[in-house]
Design goal:
Protein name: FAD-binding domain-containing protein
Shape: globular
Number of strands: 18
Strand order of the largest sheet: 5-4-13-14-15-12-16
Distance between the termini: 32 Å
Domain FAD-binding: 5-369
Number of helices: 15
CATH class of the domain at 5-71 and 110-194 and 305-376: Alpha Beta
CATH architecture of the domain at 5-71 and 110-194 and 305-376: 3-Layer(bba) Sandwich
Structural class: alpha/beta
Bound molecules: flavin-adenine dinucleotide
Largest sheet: 7 strands, mixed
Oligomer: single chain
InterPro entries: FAD-bd, FAD/NAD-bd_sf, FAD_aromatic-hydroxylase
Keywords: FAD, Flavoprotein, Oxidoreductase, Signal
GO molecular function: FAD binding; oxidoreductase activity
Length: 440
């Protein structure tokens, strides 16, 4: 492989995973691409609550020597309990800890920030190994982002916003998440509303001090008006905390969309809007609102999918949520990001001198998986099933869930309607086998 220079934008889940596999690609360290990872936040962003790694995702973390480290850092969530305003459990569905059947809770549930940190540190360790053997390794740039991006036949030319530096790369990978700026710079601002398909659903993730009713189960409460809250266990590093996903399905109130476009700058407005909507919801919402107002690890966004006919344009390619977010309600976002990083690294390793062939191979490997993951059970109605608008709708859903629970049919439904991660094929690209990694 001739040494390509590759800029990976985003040090979340997909970005450092891609870098790690690129480092494990060729056996000659001098042939490893020159990788730069650019992350907007000033340090690896250790933020975000529960995500799951399923099926193909587990195979991929195993290939990076990370299975043991990641399993040691899971939340241990037992499954999901559906509760009413008096906190009575109507139905509960446990996780299949063998990973054979995919239910709402996977056998690997981990906090997103913790996972991103593990992937970052794994890429750092592999980079040091490559440097030790005479290769270049990875250059990490934190606290900056790209303001301009232009490409000609030979290079992609970018300007860093904060440093003002201009640099050129052979390839640029946008792994910068749902609201990807790389996507807008490379594919154009126009048409963005057709690529980002919202479900009229908005949600916030944050943590709060653990209360006496919080357990190792996820508790899921719904209130009329399309409101839902999940309270979930945190991990071994935060045994005194619980994790919250608070969401609203609302197609009328434009404020939900407006505050989402403000990103991190809009946190106060986002919190105020959710507090307003949840004020009269009952159950534990008083406590949860108070804790939301106090928390500093709050993350709010529209719940959406990214749908594109092609994930590359010239020498720029999209990876993970940036190109094909399946939304947190799919349970497949992290597994897709990992599978995408693995397949993109494989394609680049197999076609080192032909980025068009590499991007086509990546597209062919990923398209069926993405289509499968984005097909939500219940289709476009899925958000309304997650958060019915009326008390009657909530009662009906509870009755259906209770029926599935008491009849023992829940396992059968999960087998056919659960996240499709066990159906995803993981190809072979001849990467070096990574040693089991230990946190030191
Ligand atoms: C702060 C945060 C919290 C999250 N919390 C949850 C959660 O609780 N539950 C859940 O299911 N999913 C959550 N997600 C989404 C989840 O991480 C992804 O769906 C999934 O893991 C796919 O990962 P990804 O690497 O494609 O994207 P992400 O994990 O979103 O990573 C993208 C990275 O790019 C960085 N970035 C963004 N814009 C730029 C830019 N212009 N320049 C440089 N870097 C940029 C971000 O800071 C981030 O580190 C969260 C994402 C983020 C960023």
């Amino acid at each position: 492989m001739t040494s390509l220079s590759i800029l990976i934008i985003g040090c979340g889940v997909a970005g450092p995973t891609l870098a790690s596999f690129l480092l494990l690609g060729p056996h000659n360290p001098q042939d490893v691409p020159h990788i730069t990872i650019l992350e907007r936040s000033p340090s690896p962003r250790a933020q975000g609550q529960n995500v799951d790694i399923r099926g193909a995702g587990v195979t991929i973390i195993r290939k990076l020597g990370l299975e043991r480290a990641i399993r040691a850092a899971t939340t241990g969530e037992e499954g999901t309990q559906f509760v009413d305003a008096q906190n009575r459990v109507w139905a509960q569905f446990g996780a299949d800890k063998s990973g054979k059947t995919q239910t709402g809770t996977s056998d690997i549930e981990i906090l997103r920030g913790r996972l991103a940190e593990i992937f970052f540190r794994r890429s750092q360790a592999l980079s040091e190994e490559v440097k030790g053997k005479g290769g270049v390794g990875v250059e990490y740039v934190f606290g900056d982002y790209i303001e301009e991006l232009e490409q000609d036949g030979a290079k992609v030319h970018v300007r860093f916003a904060r440093s003002g530096e201009r640099r050129s790369f052979d390839l640029v990978v946008g792994a910068d998440g749902l609201q990807s700026r790389t996507r807008r710079l490379a594919f154009g601002e126009e048409g963005e509303e057709n690529r980002l398909k919202g479900f009229d659903m908005y949600g916030a993730f944050f943590s709060m001090p653990k209360g006496p009713t919080d357990t190792i189960w996820r508790r899921w409460f719904n209130a009329p008006g399309g409101r839902g809250i999940m309270v979930r266990p945190s991990d071994e590093q935060h045994p005194d905390r619980s994790s919250v996903f608070m969401f609203v399905v609302n197609e009328k109130d434009e404020r939900f969309k407006d505050v989402a476009t403000q990103g991190h700058k809009g946190v106060e407005a986002q919190k105020a809007l959710l507090a307003e909507y949840w004020a009269d919801a009952g159950w534990e919402s008083g406590r949860i609102i108070r804790e939301m107002e106090a928390t500093d690890d709050f993350y709010y966004d529209v719940v959406a999918q990214v749908k594109m006919e092609k994930w590359s344009k010239g020498r720029v390619v999209l990876l993970g949520d940036a190109g094909y977010c399946a939304s947190p309600i799919s349970g497949m976002g992290t597994t897709l990001a990992l599978t995408g990083a693995y397949n993109l690294a494989g394609a680049l390793t197999q076609h080192p001198n032909d980025h068009t062939a590499a991007f086509d191979a990546y597209e062919r490997a990923m398209r069926p998986t993405v289509d499968l993951a984005q097909r939500l059970p219940g289709g476009a109605r899925q958000p309304h099933i997650m958060a019915p608008q009326t008390a009657w709708g909530i009662w009906l859903r509870m009755m259906v869930f209770a029926g599935l629970y008491w009849s023992g049919l829940a396992g059968l439904v999960a087998r056919f309607k659960g996240p499709p991660a066990n159906d995803v094929r993981v190809g072979e690209y001849g990467f070096q086998v990574a040693d089991e990694w230990r946190e030191g």
